[in-house]
Each structure stands twice: as structure tokens, then as C-alpha cells.
Design brief:
CATH superfamily of the domain at 84-93 and 256-353: Efflux pump adaptor protein, beta barrel domain
Radius of gyration: 57 Å
Helix content: 25-40%
CATH architecture of the domain at 84-93 and 256-353: Beta Barrel
Largest sheet: 6 strands, antiparallel, barrel
Strand order of the largest sheet: 4-13-16-15-14-17
Number of strands: 24
Number of helices: 6
Order of helices and strands: HHEEEEEEEEHHHEEEEEEEEEEEEEEEEH
Strand content: 25-35%
Shape: rod-shaped
CATH topology of the domain at 84-93 and 256-353: Elongation Factor Tu (Ef-tu), domain 3
Structural class: alpha+beta
């Protein structure tokens, strides 16, 4: 029996055999693809190696420089400086007087110049009281004195007679070989007590006459010194008694101002005695006088008393001829008159300092230091010794050298060694254009001369 075989289909005929002719071609394709991939890998490695060889070495790239800050500078110079110490005070009279009646009576006459605001001269008659009673008292005193002097003359004559009688009595007693036994009675015999009484009566009469004449003189009231009348209390016909106020006067030669200054400023005032010229003062009255008008004065002394509040000292300043009376005889410029009670400004000259650096207060930085632009155009924070400071200037005695460039503008974040530049350096630098910098706020324009010195 023969086995049956299945019929072969067309699809079975078309399947290639692994041992067919297409097998070598597939292997070659795989080989070609591998070679291409290897070639691509070699090229990539070569390119990467070339890139690494031509790249800059780490650390060899220069670090960019920090941008310099633009600042303003000033070059202060050693100079002499006299600070001005400013204070305020009220104008008061150095001499004031309330004229009171020393005798009683009715006001008989009044000077037309006895009015508030009018100046009078020393010895000028201001008013007069009725003086008939005082004239009569003077006459009576003169009569009493004449009588006492006559009695003294009579007594002196009686004493001469008594002395002669005493001498004769003594001679008679001696001729008889005896001795006078008068002893202590001699004074009575010679009328010495009577003579003393007569002389005392004359002295008493003279005193009464002097008093009567003084009362008569006091009935006429005169100005004791050159003065300004500030008040009058009587009128014509007023009846006054002893101690009644008649008028008020203030002297016009010199007025005072008690200037209030900080107690810490007293050390800079030259008020020591010894014949030296007193410290000079310039007085002004802002808001009342024209701008620039001043009156000269001088320091008298420092009053040894502090104000209860504010730790303020009082400096007594004097100004002569406050009403400018001496200027009336000369035409032209006339100094302004002072007004009592005015609140005035006083600029007092302080002690003079020699060879100091004078800076504006805003140039002094925190911790008594200044910012200096050194020779390398970098910021240097320099500590300095402050000798004196006020609202106008700061005096430096140590810490700066001649030629130092002090930075006058502000820096938001100052750091030691910070690079700096100035306008002059920027203008002279060769560049394609101005660099972009963080410019400091320079405030007011500074100059190489520093701040203006006083004196």
C-alpha cells in the first residue's frame, strides 16, 4: 500500500529556503549597515575631539573688571579758621532807673522832653516842684548859722578875757610865794566847755543849712545821665510825696544782650581776661532790618549760670550807642537803631585755629571718617580726628594729608577698595562710548578749594 502524499500548493513553492540564493545578500546588508554605523561613530568622535581641542582652557578667560563709580571730589588745603558761634538773645538796657521824688510838693513845671521815646542829656531839667517852703527853710537855716557863728565869736572873746584873768591870778600867787590851787577847775576858769558848745552850735547850723539847700535842690529833678525816657508817671500840678515815681529812664550809652549758646560751645569762646581785645560780635535782626544790616558788639563775660532747660549758657554781649545817636551829626550811612526787648541774632567770633583742614559737614561720614579717593583711584575709608564742628564746617586736625582727594558725593554701598572715577578722568579716557556706570548722587557741586573759611 503506497502512502498518500498531499498536493503541494503554489505558496509553498514560493517560500525561499534558507539555503537559497537570497541568504548571502541579507548578510551583506547587515555588514554594510554595521560599517555605516561605525563610520558615523568615528566621525562623531573625531568632531567631538576637535571641538574639545579648540575650546578655551578653563580659568584662562580674563575676569571682567568692576565698573568704576563716578564721584565728585574736593582737595582741602591747610588753612586758618575762626569759627562763628551763633546764638539768640533779648536786648536789655545796661542801666535803668526809676526816678522817685525825694521831697514832697506839687509839680510846678514839666520839661516838654519828658515824654516816652525821647532822649535827654545828663543834667537836663525834667521837672520842678514848688520850692517856696524850701527857699524859706534855706533862709532860716542861714539865719541860724549866722547866729551860731556870732555866739562863737562872743565866746572866743570871753575865753580870751578869761585866759588873761587866769594868767594874772597865777602871777599874783607866784609873787606871794604860793602856788595856784585851781587844778581841775582851770578848764572852767578858761571857759573851754562854753567854747566847745559854741562851736557845736555852728556845726549844727551848717548841717541844717546844707540839708535845707539839698531839699531845695531836690525840688528840681534832673536827668542823672544821657538817657531814653521810657515812662512818665506825673503831670503838671500833681501832688507828690517822698518815694513817688516820677519817670523811668534807661541809659543810651550801652545796651546788653544775654545770648543763649550751647554749653558745649563755651570752650571755643575767647573770654579770658588779661587786657586782650574782647571777642567781636555781629548783631542782626532778621525780619526787621534790611538784609545785610548788622551792628557791631563785643563779649563782656560769660554769666556763671545755665538755663534751666536746654543746657544753654548765657553770654553777655554789649553794643555801644544802641540808638545810633552819634551818627546823627554825620550825613550818609547810618547804622540801624536797636529796640529794647528785640530778640536778636548774635554771631560771635570764636578762637582762631591754625593749620587745619576745613570740610563741609556733609563730607564727614559715620564714625568720624571721610572717604578718600587714593592714588589708585579706589575708595579708602579714612578715620580722622575732629577738632571742631558746627553747622557750617568741620575742622580736621589729623587723618588727612595735603593733596588728599576727599569724596564729596554720596555712595549707596561704599566698600573699601571700590574703583572710582571722576568727570575729568572720564572725559580724558579713550573709549568707543561712555561706559554704563552707576553714578552716585553728587548733590551740590564741589570744588578743589574745599569749604569757605571764616576769618
Amino acid at each position: 500500500m503506497t502512502p498518500e502524499t498531499e498536493p503541494m500548493t503554489e505558496s509553498d513553492e514560493t517560500l525561499p529556503s534558507p539555503h537559497s540564493a537570497d541568504g548571502p545578500r541579507s548578510r551583506r546588508a547587515y555588514i554594510i549597515q554595521g560599517l555605516v554605523a561605525l563610520l558615523v561613530l568615528v566621525v562623531a568622535v573625531f568632531i567631538a575631539r576637535s571641538f574639545l581641542q579648540t575650546a578655551p582652557i578653563a580659568g584662562s578667560r580674563p575676569t571682567p573688571e568692576r565698573e568704576a563709580r563716578l564721584v565728585d571730589v574736593a582737595v582741602p588745603q591747610l588753612q586758618d579758621y575762626q569759627p562763628i558761634i551763633t546764638g539768640w538773645g533779648t536786648l536789655i538796657p545796661s542801666r535803668s532807673l526809676s526816678i522817685q521824688a525825694q521831697v514832697s510838693g506839687a509839680v510846678e513845671a514839666l520839661s516838654p522832653r519828658l515824654e516816652p521815646g525821647v532822649t535827654v542829656e545828663a543834667g537836663e531839667q525834667l521837672l520842678k516842684l514848688e520850692d517856696l517852703s524850701y527857699l524859706s527853710a534855706v533862709t532860716q537855716a542861714e539865719s541860724a548859722l549866722a547866729e551860731a557863728e556870732a555866739n562863737l565869736a562872743l565866746e572866743q572873746g570871753q575865753q580870751a578875757i578869761a585866759r588873761r584873768e587866769f594868767e594874772l591870778l597865777t602871777e599874783d600867787a607866784s609873787a606871794r610865794g604860793g602856788q595856784s590851787s585851781l587844778g581841775e577847775a582851770e578848764n572852767l576858769v578858761l571857759r573851754r566847755p562854753q567854747l566847745r558848745i559854741a562851736r557845736a552850735a555852728v556845726e549844727a547850723a551848717e548841717a541844717r543849712l546844707a540839708e535845707a539847700r539839698l531839699d531845695l535842690e531836690r525840688a528840681t529833678v534832673k536827668a542823672p545821665f544821657d538817657a531814653l525816657v521810657t515812662g512818665r508817671s506825673v503831670a503838671l500840678g500833681s501832688q507828690v510825696s517822698t518815694s513817688t515815681e516820677l519817670a523811668r529812664l534807661v541809659g543810651v550809652k550801652t545796651w546788653w544782650i544775654e545770648v543763649l549758646v550751647g554749653a558745649d560751645r563755651l570752650g571755643w569762646l575767647d573770654t579770658s581776661p588779661g587786657g586782650r581785645e574782647p571777642a567781636q560780635v555781629q548783631l542782626s535782626h532778621p525780619g526787621v532790618w534790611r538784609p545785610g544790616e548788622t551792628r557791631p558788639g563785643y563779649v563782656v563775660r560769660v554769666l556763671q549760670e545755665l538755663e534751666a532747660e536746654g543746657n544753654l549758657a548765657r553770654v553777655l554781649v554789649a553794643v555801644d550807642d544802641p540808638l545810633a545817636l552819634q551818627e546823627e551829626a554825620f550825613p550818609g550811612k547810618r547804622e540801624p537803631q536797636l529796640l529794647l526787648g528785640s530778640f536778636m541774632r548774635a554771631d560771635i567770633e570764636g578762637r582762631r585755629f591754625s593749620d587745619v583742614f576745613v570740610l563741609e559737614p556733609r563730607w564727614l561720614r559715620e564714625g568720624n571718617s571721610v572717604w578718600v579717593m587714593n592714588d589708585d583711584d579706589a575708595l579708602e575709608i579714612r578715620p580722622v580726628e575732629v577738632l571742631y564742628r558746627d553747622d557750617n564746617a568741620v575742622l580736621i586736625s589729623a587723618g588727612l594729608d595735603a593733596g588728599d582727594r576727599v569724596i564729596t558725593s554720596r555712595l549707596s554701598t561704599p566698600a573699601e577698595g571700590m574703583p572710582l572715577r571722576t568727570e575729568a578722568h572720564t572725559d580724558s579716557a579713550a573709549s568707543d562710548g561712555p561706559p554704563s556706570v552707576d553714578r552716585a548722587d553728587s548733590g551740590a557741586e564741589a570744588t578743589d578749594a574745599g569749604v569757605r573759611a571764616h576769618g
